[in-house]
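Review session, final week

We close the course with one last complete record, chosen because it touches almost every idea we covered. It is DUF2827 family protein, a protein from Tsuneonella suprasediminis with 377 residues. Go through it on your own first, then we will talk.
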Amino acid sequence: MRVGVSALPAAGGDIWSNGIGQNVFHLACLLRSIPFVEQVVLLDCGGEGQLPAHTEPVGGQFPLIPLVEADGAIDIAIELSGGLDAEWTRRFRARGGKVVTHLCGQPYAALVEPTIFSRPANYGLAERCDEVWLLPKDRQFSAMMRGVHRCPVEEVPYLWSPVFLDHAAEMVEQEGLSFGYRAGALAKGAVSAAIFEPNISTIKMGILPFLICDEVHRADPSALARLRFMNTAQFAKHHTFVMMVGRSSLYSAGKVSLEGRDYFARVMGGGVDIVVSHQIDCPQNYLYLDVLAGGYPLIHNSPLFADVGYYYPASDVDAGRAQFELACREHDRNLASYRARANEKIASLSPANSANRDAYARRLLAVTSRSAPRYAA
């Protein structure tokens, strides 16, 4: 079996621009390990002929071929990062090829937010694929996706590897920075915190983490020395945002910096001690794994990561504050067990994990053996 995974190299972008770009390579590495998969290629859906910057650890291991040249080179196409051209998809399936749409973003938000906020979106026609793959975080949307795509919808494992994080850590070391939590960092008293939510969707915003940090500061102004609020520079003149931030005790104390985008390892290597996060119906996030792999305390509300980090339920600001304070008191004391639990979690998501490999192998066999379904319009 020959498999192609769609990729969309962004001009001027790098592998840390978004999680889905990294997911392309995690999936490709897993597929390559399946015994009956002869070859894995990346399908260039952007026509640029090159991969994003900083894919060196694994990027050169997979051929990147233009979509128009892929017809006879693959048996199954997995639409992941780049959208497959509709006419190419029709011809490919007519010749017996199979197409899977692998959805990594939250499906409901991906459907409604482009309409509400007048954003461009890639919405494929119904019945254009043979199967849809969802991650565990999105299982509640399975029935909705069956209605949208009119084909079987199946759950596949979430994948992550520290390969790109390790590469980033090596890069920041060359800048004179040091990535990775150092025992005793929280014991110094006033800590430095960061919020990394992308702030481009209602489901992953930094507002609630900001409120948690402000509550920590209100309870004890000496507890928090600085808050780096990433991905907020564009809101510096937004009336609602300025009103909210400007009324906080943190802002009044001059401890908040509204910053643009930067990659995780560089920010943490600059002296950040703790990360605060929040999500709504999007409980699997590469950010959590970056934080855990670095040994840093992660304050989060993801039920799927409740066994690691410092978990608070739903949008409970008070509980988030309590977990922040707990981390400051206990993280150094329990650092060995914290790292052990984090490493166990990371290993369970590895592309090299046999359970993950077998799950994807079963899906490939199922989709290639099934006749194309026909649903009424």
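Two points worth writing down before the exam:
The two ends are 31 Å apart (CA to CA).
The chain has a mean pLDDT of 94.
Good luck, everyone.
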